[in-house]
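Worked Example 4.2. Consider the chain below.
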Amino acid sequence: MQQPPTARRDPVVREHHGDRFEDPYAWMADRESPELRELLVGENAYATERTEHLRPLAEQVFEEFRSRIEETDLSVPVRHDRWWYYSRTVEGEQYAVEARVAIADHPERPTLDAGRPPAGEQVLLDQNEEGRDHEFFAVGASEVSPSGDLLAYAVDVVGDERYDVRVRRIEDGAVLDDAVRRTGGSLAWSLDARHFFYTRVDEAWRPFQVWRHEVGAPVEDDVLVHEEADERFFVGVGTSRDDRLVLIAIGSKTTSEFRLLDAADPLGTPRVVAERRQGVEYDIEPFGDQLLVVHNANRVNFELAIAPVTSTTAEDWVPLEVTSDDEYVTGAEGFDDFIAVSLRREGVTGIRVVLRDPACANGLGEAHDVVVGEPIGTLHVGVNPEASTPTLQVVHESLVTPRTVEDYDVRTRSLTLLKQQRVRGDVDLGRYRQRREWATAADGTRIPISVVHRHDVQADGTAPGLLNAYGAYGISSDPWFSVLRLSLLDRGWVFAIAHVRGGSEMGRSWYDDGKLAAKPNTFTDFVACADHLVESGIVAADRLAAEGGSAGGLLMGAVVNLAPQRFRFVHAQVPFVDALTTVLDPSLPLTVVEWEEWGNPLEDPTAYALMKSYAPYENVQPARHPSLLVTAGLDDTRVFVTEPAKWVAALRHADQQVEDPAQILFRTEMAAGHGGRSGRYDLWRQWAWETAVLIDQTS
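Applying the procedure from the previous section yields the following structure tokens:
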């Protein structure tokens, strides 16, 4: 096969607000179509053939990656009740094993003994055994009952993020219940473990109901606890740290509501914490007889308040005044002796500890920030199930520092190392340099860029570079450590993250300035970051690559149209590239909830025109495009495979009018969803192949 498959063109007219668009590949909307499946198989075969020469390089990258990973490993055991809980991996096995050991047998935190699990281990869930007969296997929620004798867990064996629930007795592994199927994935136990709560999805696959199930009873006897009629809102369910409250979280992109149920009275009626108000978002953390409330009723960047646990109105929220207006509050956790507040300031994550002091009017005393000694990186609260803990588990990493877990003593302000991700082999992490650069956007806004490279890479305009971004939903692309990335850095690459508007790196306004009518800022910010890297000599003008996934894939598609000459190569992962068609169809998954992010093009001509101006699929034109790698998952329910398939077909058709068109590769994982393949070795091989393509296309 020397030529890629050709997709059939069969134009269907779409008309809205006086605009007429001919969609030649509308037939691909039928994901069950044998013709579409044949096209995807053909594209995979073409991609394999065109990259056959890269097989040795892909294998080399895979072995580099594998040789640096601790394949048999143990997570940091966490103390809860009578047990140490942890997960571990075994060399050669695809998935993790969830397990525990008794504190009575292991007073100190357990470790692996020459690769063997701790003595007296109780296996909660061996994902390798569960997933052995499935091409895809993923665990959603996994919850031990309050008494510690049962495990409820949700599994997806397709990749569509719809989960079947099983209840297992931990002592002997017997499955007591597997009647609840096709759920939204979240779970919560009643205090006596006679019941558990779960979510159901509607026809648009939106979690919209919470149900109560009695263990061992027929699913037909399940009771509906809450139903959300407003299609903008998702529903989730969980429990408080002390297991005494069942939390029902209800939220859209701009508005929140919580309901609480006494876990000791699972047959009761949930009560509202505070009625929803359009545009007001809040989150709660029950602790003792109080609630911590993080909300934006008065501040764009949110603030922390406290209320009685019995509160049913926002009028009970008393501000705690532990943060300032320019600090973006992203969460809070309450413990017996202190509160941990998660926040962002000037593009950097942080944790503020507020000690409890009964002598003070609000019960809170001195506050201070956790300091880990690295100015550029990511710091967040780890796993802390015990309210009585005198220490706070914190996790930090950066572009040059592996994931590090430490216990922070809130009184002495000292850190105790629990575990740092080990990088095997002869890797000297001191050889790598990270820094923060700033680009200037078209409107004068300064856009931060996180940059990492090997120490001997000079800003002389010769180095290849990879620019990564996401830029949507307020999700920040904070610096993270990657063993796979070392394979690029050691080949002289520069890796950079563009912290474009649409994320929340610089505060909540950073998100607001990259959504709805301001969405084009995301795209022009990214191009400005690319220009900065080239003009500063950090990367070569003809060796710059870009990558982004999902909504970041929409970004990739938009910049391919906006600045096709700027990038040598673009990797669009599960890309949301037919965004306007999708957001015009409220019957599709996630569409209605997306209107608060992108606008409602069905009702609003202005929103329609704006999306039409940047939607990648609608704006494909004959041009000298960069080389493209487009990757997708057949069972992806967030971005249907239809979208990248249509986009690639449109690009291939347009390129027929271009002399010497760039290479386009389109590969669909046929047993995967939005996150790619599920087994770790399978995923590593997928990444290694993608890295080999990247290296080849920018050489």
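The chain has a mean pLDDT of 96. The first helix runs from residue 34 to 50. Compare this with Example 4.1 before moving on.
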